[in-house]
Write a structure and sequence with these properties.
heterodimer; A: mainly alpha; ABC transporter involved in vitamin B12 uptake, BtuC; globular; B: 360 residues; alpha/beta; Rossmann fold; six-stranded parallel β-sheet; six-stranded mixed β-sheet
Chain lengths: 346, 360
């Protein structure tokens, strides 16, 4: 901070051109991470004026339920992006784990296994399936020294293929009641659906892990300077495998919640979700070059996309303009962030 | 599926003449090519002119080497699997080979490589469900240039002149039927909305148009207030329908043009506590939509007859290859069946439900 303060005091001595851009940069720097929160509040105010129904329980439930799968995926994606990696396969892993777990549950129900066993094995299958995709990504990236973009692009396609192989590409609807109830259950007299609660818990827990633990610190260290991290004694490869495994595990959890929400597992679930997850992380201020990003930022990023989705329908914006608007918000958010970053580093 | 073939539309003189012209052009072209086996057998039964049903009985061994390629919109969808089953049954009866290849997603990007690769294999005829009205034109043109007749099944292309025939479910009628069924449930008044997949898909666009037009022309007290696109995501569809319920308090119906719209709309309406107030019309008897229909999450289901489409396509290709072009109608519309929650378990309805696996 003292470094950036100095030029301002020295500015009158230079006293040449109007330093409007540095002033703007200083302004952005002061705001810090809170600017994304400001954008979110601005969106809520604008849409709220245009469509007061935004401030209803129904709108809250619509927006928060929509955000569940994207927030969970984006949390995993945040860890990956901070290490200067990317996980394009998390949407595919979501669909795969949902189908794998549903297939196990369908077989157990048809063979009259107990409900408890069916539910436990089904959920375990989903989480393990997601975890395996993540582990596969991590091992391919670290052992074969392949770029994360290529590896996860490949697993995106391959895993989608496996998903279709599981049940000839068709959906599974034979599920235990526990799973279908999980999708509709809520607390606080209906204000907080269980899937939303789970997503928030994931954000809080992993937010803590990233910000307050050695694991989180090492994640930043690897993303800032991988060689340096290695020299400092961090077992970089092992750490990266764990980061991709977390992304996969969370995709498995998201697969469970999507399956529960629609009382069926479909192979197309999670299709294109990785784009929303990456956009959420980018809006949240993470650098795709690694070393920077927070779960709080990602949370706000997901919230911005979800509020946009709700608000644009509530205000009857034509569907194609909705796509245009969402695309421009992503670009604008990242563009503003770059100006802010430049202010911080120069 | 023991479904009877659709009655062919009468009075299509122009199409008929065109068919004859194409057929003779084909015969000339085929004489020059290496596959002479096709043309040698083509001339003999042409004069018989009997009804098409006789073709099934006369499965003469001379046509055994005809290979008809069926390219679905995607290989993993019950709709197309049911179509494959119908087509394979007919191919077996006629004694021709049927191949089945396609992409695993409904997109030109996935379908184009398959179609281009097929050209090298030089099949006797191509039956295809084009995944885009424009993008498939160029590859289909290549087949036509190679004197391979092309028949569009279910979806079609804009340049229908390239096609020997086009067979489709009557998607406009299906959309209109959904509109009628929803209007009946809602006592002919209130707002309705459409949750479509993506623009540019001829079938789902026709369903939406049929629905919208029927509401506009037949129900003066009903209004179509929105059309949303869910991009094949149930999560997106759910959010859209929840928000439509919110922004249009007098919403009484949602027409979802495919499974993901139906799942999203059904989930949204039960979550919003609007069951019995907002009615959902949906499309296609896949296991998931049938389950939704049975439990009342959706109220109306328009069921197509893909088995009949596949069967007719094989028959027309066979007619074309055996010189009976005059019997091929240019356009065939296969009617739909409408199911409601009340009739969901009726054997007269369940026999139309799609199959999820077929190997043959």
């Amino acid at each position: 901070m003292s470094v950036s303060d100095e030029p301002r005091e020295a500015a009158p001595a230079d006293a040449t051109q109007g330093d409007s851009i540095p002033a703007f940069q200083r302004f952005m720097e002061r705001i810090g991470d809170l600017w994304t929160l400001g954008v979110l509040i601005l969106l809520i105010v604008i849409f709220g004026i245009a469509a007061p129904s935004l401030f209803t329980k129904a709108a809250w439930l619509s927006t928060s339920s929509y955000a569940v799968e994207y927030l969970i995926l984006a949390v995993g994606q945040t860890f990956v992006i901070i290490t200067a990696g990317i996980d394009l396969s998390d949407g595919a892993a979501l669909g795969f784990s949902g189908m794998a777990g549903a297939l196990v549950m369908e077989h157990l129900i048809n063979s009259h296994a107990s409900d408890t066993l069916t539910v436990i094995l089904g959920i375990a299958t989903m989480l393990v399936a997601g975890l395996l995709v993540g582990l596969g990504n991590g091992l391919l990236i670290t052992r074969l020294k392949l770029p994360p973009f290529i590896v996860t692009l490949g697993t995106l396609t391959a895993v989608t293929g496996f998903t279709n192989l599981l049940n000839h590409g068709t959906e599974i609807t034979t599920l235990p009641n526990f799973i279908t109830n999980l999708g509709t259950a809520s607390i606080l007299s209906g204000w907080l659906p269980i899937p939303v609660l789970i997503a928030l818990a994931v954000a809080v827990i992993f937010g803590f892990v990233l910000a307050r633990t050695r694991f989180g610190l090492r994640t930043y260290a690897i993303g800032s300077n991988e060689v340096g991290a290695r020299r400092a004694g961090i077992r970089v490869d092992r750490h990266l495998v764990m980061v991709y495994a977390i992304s996969g595990l969370l995709a498995g959890l998201a697969g469970l919640l999507v399956t529960a929400n629609f009382s069926s597992a479909t192979p197309l679930a999670g299709n294109n979700d990785e784009l929303y997850a990456i956009a959420s992380v980018a809006i949240g201020g993470a650098s795709i070059f690694g070393g920077r990003g927070t779960i709080f930022g990602t949370f706000i990023g997901t919230a911005i996309l979800s509020v946009l989705t709700t608000g644009l329908v509530l205000t009857n914006v034509a569907p194609f303009w909705q796509q245009v608007a969402i695309g421009f918000v992503v670009i604008a958010a990242v563009a503003i962030d770059r100006v802010r970053t430049r202010a911080g580093t120069d | 599926m023991q479904l009877k073939s659709v009655t062919r539309p009468a009075g299509r003189r122009r199409a008929l003449l065109l068919g004859v012209a194409v057929a003779s052009a084909l015969a000339v072209a085929a004489c020059g090519s290496s596959s002479s086996s096709t043309t040698s057998s083509a001339s003999s039964p042409a004069s018989s002119g009997g009804s098409s049903s006789t073709a099934a009985s006369s499965s003469s061994s001379s046509h055994k080497n005809l290979t008809i390629a069926l390219v679905p919109g995607l290989t993993v969808d019950p709709f197309y699997i049911t179509m494959h089953a119908g087509a394979a049954q007919e191919a077996k009866a006629l004694g021709v080979n049927l191949t089945w290849q396609g992409g695993t997603t409904f997109s030109p990007t996935a379908q184009l490589p398959v179609v281009n690769a097929l050209l090298a294999k030089n099949p006797s005829a191509l039956l295809i469900a084009p995944t885009d009205v424009n993008a498939l034109k160029a590859p289909i043109q290549k087949f036509v240039n190679a004197s391979i007749p092309v028949i569009a099944v279910d979806t079609t292309i804009n340049d229908t002149g390239l096609l020997t025939a086009a067979i489709t479910s009557d998607n406009t009628q299906g959309g209109a039927a959904a509109a009628d069924a929803i209007a009946k449930l809602a006592h002919d008044k209130g707002d309705v909305a459409v949750d479509n997949v993506n623009p540019g898909i001829s079938t789902t666009d026709a369903r939406a148009a049929g629905f919208i037009n029927e509401i506009k022309t037949k129900y003066p007290n009903m209004h179509v207030v929105a059309t949303e696109y869910n991009n094949d995501s149930a999560t997106t569809a759910e959010s859209q329908v929840r928000n439509l319920i919110l922004s249009h308090p007098s919403l009484v119906g949602v027409f979802a043009t495919n499974l993901y719209g139906a799942q999203g709309a059904g989930t949204a309406i039960s979550a919003a506590g609007k069951t019995g107030k907002v009615f959902v019309g949906a499309y296609d008897a896949e296991p998931a939509t049938v389950a939704l229909l049975k439990k009342g999450a959706i109220n109306v289901l328009v069921i197509q007859q893909p088995a009949v489409e596949g069967k007719d396509a094989v028959l027309y290709a066979y007619d074309k290859l055996t010189g009976k072009s005059s019997q091929i109608p240019k356009n065939t519309l296969v009617p739909n069946v409408v199911a409601t929650t009340a009739t969901a378990s009726d054997p007269n309805i369940t026999k139309y439900y799609y199959v999820t696996s077929f190997s043959g």
